[in-house]
Amino acid sequence: MDTESKVAAEEPRKVNFIEEIIEADLAAGKFKSIMTRFPPEPNGYLHLGHAKSICLNFGLAEKYGGATNLRYDDTNPTKEDTEYVDSIKEDIAWLGFHWDKELYASDYFDQLYEWAEEMILKGLAYVDDQTQEEIRLGRGTVDKPGTPSPWRDRSPEENLKLFREMKAGKYADGEKVLRAKIDMAHPNMMFRDPLMYRIKHASHHRTGDKWCIYPMYDYTHGQCDSIEHITHSICTLEFDVHRPLYDWFIETLGIFPSHQYEFARLNLTYTLMSKRKLLELVQKGLVSGWDDPRMPTLCGVRRRGYTPASLKMFCDKIGVSKREQLIDLQLLEWCVRQDLNARSNRYMVVQDPIKVTITNYPEDKVEWFDCPLNPAEPEGPSRKVPFSREILIDRADFMEDAPKKFFRLRPDGEVRLKYTYIIKCDEVVKDESGKVVELRCSYDPTTHPKSGEWRSVKGTIHWVSVPHAREIEIRNYDRLFTLPDMSEVPEDKDYKDFLNPDSLVVGKGYAEPALLEDASGIAVQFERTGYYMKDPDSTPDNPVFNRTVTLKDSYKPE
Ligand code: ATP
Ligand code: MG
Fold this sequence. Notes:
Oligomer: single chain
Shape: elongated
Strand order of the largest sheet: 13-26-27-28-24-25-14
CATH topology of the domain at 269-347 and 472-558: Glutamyl-tRNA Synthetase, domain 2
Distance between the termini: 19 Å
Number of helices: 13
Bound molecules: adenosine-5'-triphosphate, magnesium ion
């Protein structure tokens, strides 16, 4: 895999290879309109990889005037759950897409069963009594043809009787399977009598106890597509070996010719997207839940403050190809900043404070400054920011022995307090340990922003008035893993060995009062720091903010 850099951010998008296929199909009159589907298995929450598939499937239908079905691939009763079904709908709707029909592979269990009987009667399927292991060994290898099962030549009548008994619950799990009778020497291993049905005495989240036999993926997916007249069935590259079998079942049954096309899945640096591993993180308590803001799940990034627009922008930038690639997480963060920079409200918050006393400012005086919520719209909506004799500034904005290029506050130096006056540092107060605890400053009243005598100094810093400051909890998040390419976890290690111990740093902040009245519903900008999203854990006494992303790239290549 190679790392795609930020360059992708600058490139205009061309038509991708699937769009080329669709345009050719439409031009040739193969279809009047297109139909796509998004087929999640309801065994976990959707992640950023799914967002790519969703944007692609729904995006194509929008672009070419077609429609997209949401079809749950629910043929694995033991792993599936309605909790996941509901979350999937919520996440797709949040992204802003509308499905045509909500469907389930289980809706087609009767039809699939009928087709299986049809195949049995045509001598194209048989009941096999071998164990899973015997079947596996009998398949042979790529260089060695398989060995036919001793049960391969049962008569259609016997097969039908046994298959009906399987359905009726006469046999235990694993005792028998139904296999397609194709070719045990076929060069494509998929064709060496693939399984069609297995016995599983398990309750299904929708069909309950109606079935104790369940169809296999390969016997299900293509037919479901066909029933729904899906014109372009789009999936990830690992399914390309399944495509001939997909076609075989459709041709054998003589049903609507859906076609499958494969694209490269999304891989992101420092990120894992296997549902199985994400589930493990949740179950072991290594994250707070599926919606932990460090998770790559859509509910996680939503809670963190990523927006649907930023995810769509990202999917658009990375494009669609057949080449496996590892995308830089920074590209996603760039998209998030891009969207939030344009839309988010600004507030001042100090996280690591030093108290500043403005000695020549009257003790009881408070001035309220009218400050734009977004600097891009100076005449747009504003908030009122109080200024008083005692304020807080960030420790990082003061330096005693500052180098020349340090344009913030230093002893005897001047700085502009954002939206207000210029102050000068007259005295540095320290405690016994030598830590700076207070700066005694004076302000220049002629530098009021509306005084008309604008005097400029090099630096501008943010600040918060002490009597008006509101204490908040801040959860500063960083990437969950420390390994850039999580597909390269060494053999002798586990992916959990690469969890970043500093992925969450909880701290406090002191905010201007207007922050707590913000009703925008999206992440806000803490000026000069980053974007922050109010968390549902917030209470009136303890407002909580999640860091969505820092303002600038803090990333430094090694
Ligand atoms: P996982 O491997 O994370 O468990 P999955 O492929 O089993 O994912 P499904 O619910 O079967 O998850 O996926 C639904 C759709 O989303 C499929 O079409 C699948 O190809 C696609 N998809 C899953 N992961 C990615 C990814 N990383 N990038 C692009 N598409 C993906
Ligand atoms: Mg899957």
